[in-house]
# Entry
Amino acid sequence: MNNRTMIKLSASEDCITLRTFSKEYHSPQGFIFLEKDLLELEEKRYMTVSDIRSFAKLALRKTMEQGNILEISFTWLRDIGREEVAGRTETVRLSYEKFKAFVKESRERGIQLRVLSLEEHTGPKIEFQSRRNLKAVAETKALRKKLGKFLGKHFLRWQGSRQITVYDDFEPYSFFFQEQTPYGSGMCGGVILHGRENLEKAYYGIHT
# Structure
């Protein structure tokens, strides 16, 4: 149970609110999804949604062993004053059938339920020590999606890493990262936004 996350779930007619609690981290607030988000997810199998400053990538994956798995990769951001934000990423995995059953029960009974996630992803934690650039990305819808997708595609698949710490880079919307392994410091480099003159077509790349 130590490597799993407890999720407090409450549902109304149109909304579902999730808040996460683990040994290492408690989410700074509840994250609100709309009922229509789940309907869209069932059709597209992947989507990104936002709530206040935070955002989440939702993926619906089919497995032979556990059926449909709902994977939610949160990027939790909070205001720390002086027009700065800080935060970190967190991924939870749930049986989608059980998740829908809990949503139905919460909605019908008007109660908050506690749900335990499936085994945690073995990829590294991503922690933000960025200030200026993270705030700029969080306020730009197109870049929130690009950054979230890029981090999930690259860093969360690194095996043998314990944590990736992300700092501001001198380039706008870009970052410097430092890997931590069980044996000390690992790879470092930049997560650089290319083509920022057109944010809709811009893309992130790793420089080491």
Notes: The mean pLDDT is 88. The chain has two domains: 1-121, 122-208. The two ends are 36 Å apart (CA to CA).
